[in-house]
Amino acid sequence: MKTIVVLTGAGISAESGIKTFRDSDGLWEEHRIEDVATYDAWIKNQNLVLEFYNQRRRQLATVQPNAAHIALAKLEAKYQVYIITQNVDNLHERGGSSNVLHLHGELTKARSTCDEDLVYDIGYKDILPGDKCKNGSQLRPHIVWFGEAVPLIMDAATLVKKADILMVIGTSLVVYPAAGLINYAPSHIPKYYIDPNASNSSCFTNLTVIKAKAGDGVPGLVERLMNN
Ligand code: NAD
Hints:
The chain has 228 residues and is of the alpha/beta class. Helix content is 26%, strand content 21%. It has helices at residues 33-36, 39-44, 46-60, 67-74, 91-94, 153-161, 214-227; strands spanning 3-8, 27-28, 31-32, 80-85, 100-102, 105-112, 119-121, 139-143, 165-169, 191-194, 207-210. Residues 9-15, 18, 20-23, 86-89, 104, 170-172, 174-175, 195-197, 213-214 line the site of nicotinamide-adenine-dinucleotide.
């Protein structure tokens, strides 16, 4: 069975109604990234950061996977599929994908501020000031903020290295280290990049650029790969 590795960014969830932020004047749901998605922000204004992610989590409960998430799950009938997502939503899982690695964490989890291995499933519940881990420390969103280390990056690189086919969907490829993952793909394998703003990079061999929204481009590509 061939292995397909799929690297996804915020763009794949855009048609589900979750905003990306690079498309909207650098603001993410009316906030500057520095004010809500960095460790400094957490130190300066814990309440604002908790409320920002509580809103994201409440919104997640109201949206649905789109045609792109659902199409990717169909690949599992013919391929070993690994999704590596920069997204903190759970739309790949809800669209039916089995193997999803969340590079930047998950909205539906909270973790201890004193022990990063203490992670709790919270579903769509808010995290409130005063909510504590079993050791008595404040809980924070289980999110890798900008500037923080990405613990799963080497696991992701290992998956990309063993890909027979690579798909990159809905990412501007500017947020590192995630963007660097594409460099681990074997040079001879076919690579597909689906994004309405995708640019053709001469750095990558065997790259097919599909300038389209995920909901338009992914189902067609999946159908081609299923008929290969
Ligand atoms: P990004 O850097 O991956 O850029 C978004 C990309 O999506 C752009 O290249 C844009 O052209 C593309 N895009 C827009 N609409 C699309 C569509 N319909 N189909 C396909 N592609 C489309 O992502 P970002 O918004 O800059 O976010 C960076 C980080 O912020 C993420 O990696 C994540 O950690 C966090 N974030 C997560 C979510 C989420 O979980 N859904 C949403 C926003 C931001």
